[in-house]
Write a structure and sequence with these properties.
The protein is α+β, with helices and mostly antiparallel strands. The chain has helices spanning 18-31, 36-48, 79-89, 96-108, 115-118, 134-139, 156-162, 195-255, 262-290, 302-310, 313-318, 339-356, 388-391, 409-419; strands at residues 57-64, 67-74, 122-124, 143-145, 167-173, 178-185, 298-300, 323-327, 334-337, 362-370, 374-381, 423-429, 433-443.
């Protein structure tokens, strides 16, 4: 016997144990296309949702340099509003996304909200004076504070802002350092903070610290990749521009010689014009790569688009000695894309296939409906295939195995598909050819 169960991720289960509710919240974070800030908000939501850990309020500090700076304070500002919020959030059918959206609006509210109070708080982590809340971050210790009104270690300004006698400080610890702190309390219910509450809150703190750490690490890696790409672009431009500029300079200098014959002047001017056009092609391709998304996404007829490409004189010339076969069913839905960019992307792939196909070989273009409401345009050749060392770099700008290639064609194709919400798939076997599949979102007829 087989029983099927869907993931219970959308609606909250008020009668489930708090541990299950918290894990449900955390599990859904991984399924949402959220930014780091959204994920931190989701974790604060898990701490304050009545069916999660259940604290009344959660305050977030982040480390900037060596300063612990107040960022957010999630929770209702008054007991009356607390009752209203809890009533709304306990409505049947309310789920994870709705609660996070509700709390985002609560954070963004400047009039009567809490966050503007905590934004004024900051503490130097290098100072010798240990006070709460910075003490928790400095020592990487969880601090459960009771009787805060008479505890000398509590910073006076912080005591005035938080306004409660009992609260919990949770440092957000990364692999190498502390990256922030969360402070939670039960200002409105007055419920004591007990050991199970602390254990669940610590779990949220560990996850939050990991999110911040991995986000900072990812940003550093992206910055390094950008610098590497910039260096590669510089080398590419130097290579592509130096030769024609050298030629132009040399032949221009000869034109200054009054003894140069008219025939040689015409020859020099012809060469100079040829090199200028070469420069224009290089600059045009780079400019095209950086100026995408021109115009709205519209419905495109794949059959008409490809037939227009096949009718171009340049494609006919490049296709000499090769057989082009085009297959397209009559009931194919339209594809969604930018009109000019989509056609240019298909042409780039077709150009590559015609260059790779052997003399007397075949290039096959097929249009078909794909999974998840997609329209697939596939272009296959019988060429030598892609070398293993190039497969991982296919879509990187300036990566090419062609002697005179620029390595911008497939980078352009990928950007076009990404912007239109589609994707590119490449399948290649050495000695047996390559197939490129452009998977557009399906649309209706215009």
């Amino acid at each position: 016997m087989i029983q099927r169960h869907a993931f219970p991720l959308q609606e909250l289960q008020p009668d489930a144990p708090r541990e299950v509710q918290l894990l449900s919240f955390i599990g859904q974070i991984f399924l949402q296309p959220f930014s780091l800030e959204d994920n931190l908000l989701a974790l604060l939501t898990a701490l304050t949702a009545g069916s999660g850990v259940g604290f009344n309020r959660a305050m977030l500090f982040l480390v900037e340099g060596r300063t612990l700076r107040g960022r957010w304070w999630l929770g209702p500002p008054t007991p009356e509003e607390a009752c209203t919020i809890w009533e709304v959030l306990s409505t049947p059918g309310i789920g994870f996304v709705e609660i996070v959206d509700y709390n985002r609006a609560l954070l963004e509210r400047r009039e009567g909200g809490l966050s503007h109070r905590v934004e004024r708080l900051s503490y130097n982590l290098d100072e010798g004076r240990d006070t709460i809340p910075s003490l928790s971050a400095r020592r990487r210790e969880i601090l459960h504070v009771r009787d805060a009104d008479c505890e000398p270690l509590v910073d006076e300004g912080f005591r005035d802002v938080i306004g409660v006698r009992e609260f919990l400080c949770i440092p957000l610890v990364s692999r190498d350092d502390v990256v922030g702190e969360i402070v939670v309390d039960n200002a409105f219910t007055g419920a004591p903070i007990e050991a199970p509450d602390i254990r669940l809150a610590c779990l949220c703190g560990l996850i939050a610290g990991n999110y911040i750490y991995t986000s900072l690490l990812t940003k550093k890696m992206m910055d390094m990749e950008k610098l590497a790409a910039l260096g590669e672009a510089g080398v590419f431009l130097l290579h592509q521009l130096r030769n024609p500029l050298t030629v132009i300079g040399g032949f221009a200098d000869q034109l200054l010689d009054v003894k140069l014959s008219e025939s040689k002047k015409r020859r020099n001017l012809t060469i100079i014009r040829k090199e200028i056009k070469r420069l224009e092609r290089v600059i045009g391709k780079i400019g095209r790569l950086t100026r995408l998304n021109s115009g709205p996404v519209v419905s495109l007829d794949p059959k008409s688009m490809i037939e227009e490409l096949l009718a171009l004189p340049a494609i006919k010339v490049k296709g000499r000695g090769r057989h082009i076969r085009f297959e397209c069913p009559p009931d194919l839905p339209d594809a969604l894309g930018h009109r000019l960019d989509a056609a240019e992307a298909v042409r780039n792939v077709l150009d590559n296939a015609l260059e790779a196909a052997t003399w007397g070989g075949e290039v096959v273009i097929r249009c078909a409906g794909g999974p998840d409401r997609t329209v697939v345009i596939s272009i296959a050749d019988n060429g030598p295939g892609i070398a293993p060392g190039m497969r991982e770099r296919l879509f990187e700008p300036f990566a090419t195995s062609k002697k005179n290639g620029m390595g911008l064609g497939l980078a352009f194709v990928k950007r076009v598909m990404d912007i239109a919400g589609g994707r590119v798939e490449v399948e290649s076997r050495e000695g047996r050819g390559t197939e490129v599949r452009l998977m557009f979102r399906a649309g209706g007829k215009e």
